[in-house]
């Protein structure tokens, strides 16, 4: 059970909630803060004070005063009018992350929602009821308004959900689990949708997948190093300590550990003096991607525990301030950075693939074909890797450099952070397929060299991966192999996974 407090949610806990489907609860202290803030909102309504989003309209309508008799209708209208997202829904795991993050931010006690709103969000998580949330439609400022409105619809018994492997009306799933839909009161609609939880949820899921990919990139690169008789001297500890980047040193250490008992890697001068950059510079390139990952993790961790609502309520309601914490710029930059850092893992991977399949660059069979000429072998797999890498270059264009004014120019600068997070996730899927292609080629290369001469760690990988993709004895539909290997990489924790991290 993960206890949400609004202040200290970690990636480790998110991983448990998302992948181990662990249940959540709210701390007693945080719920007291929620109740106290709610009482402040009710006092504002009763006194008919003019406070944005509580007794006024929204956006450009902030100067329109709303009577206390109309507060429920105001909140309902807000949600249904803003629930206009389009396109394919976010992956179910992202929807789950959104609910958790929204509950966590309400638990900070600055948003003014009733405890029942938090309880209902937590019930959705614990009963695995995940809102169907279209991916497109957020500008990433004023919060992720359209996506989060689709989440809020479910609390009201409207909209659609994923439940027990099916897509169905929200009310049907809520009824089956005995969850009572809520009627939103003053401020609650705004409290649910004014925030960055769509881009942050997408970023969290993307980050967790990217971290696994970065470790897998090291493992696959180590296998390629063996397949190409790579020179291990370039990974010497002194070389990387001389530069001083910790992440670079970590990658070099992992590669050394992975191939420590290999009879396939070589020393400089044995076969050649030095390797091409795609082999020799693995620590420098992969290490730089790890620097990006660490930056992204830091920013997402802050945002996971941030108050991103507007207005925020302090001092028992005596201090209510309309600010801009809903602006997604910090996460927009982080997502754009993530795109570049992860895309580079595929860029260098594709070059290693080329070295394995190109007979002018190694002594391996041309295109790793069993019968070169009669059979094409891995020839077009390299094409696919090149196409994915090229597509990533387009997707890696920063979303955050764009801004389009909205709400009659009241909201005249936006982050486009949700677009950045979605594109980052697309890049991650492409990178995984490129690494899958490298893995298939590397398995074939080391098989040609002699599996018995492999390092213990990479040999374990070889044996397990061969259950997924068999040896290339002849041409076949390699698309199926690529997808199988990609799914294997997505869902598998290697026995050496934690050791690699350390």
Automatic annotation (TrEMBL):
There is a cross-link at residues 141-143 (5-imidazolinone (Ala-Gly)). It catalyses: L-histidine = trans-urocanate + NH4(+). Pathway: Amino-acid degradation; L-histidine degradation into L-glutamate; N-formimidoyl-L-glutamate from L-histidine: step 1/3. It is found in: Cytoplasm. Contains an active site 4-methylidene-imidazol-5-one (MIO), which is formed autocatalytically by cyclization and dehydration of residues Ala-Ser-Gly. The keyword Cytoplasm applies. The modification 2,3-didehydroalanine (Ser) is found at residue 142. Its EC number is 4.3.1.3. GO terms for molecular function: histidine ammonia-lyase activity. Keywords: Cytoplasm, Histidine metabolism, Lyase. PANTHER family: HISTIDINE AMMONIA-LYASE. This is Histidine ammonia-lyase. It comes from Priestia taiwanensis. The lineage of its organism: Bacteria, Bacillati, Bacillota, Bacilli, Bacillales. The gene is hutH.
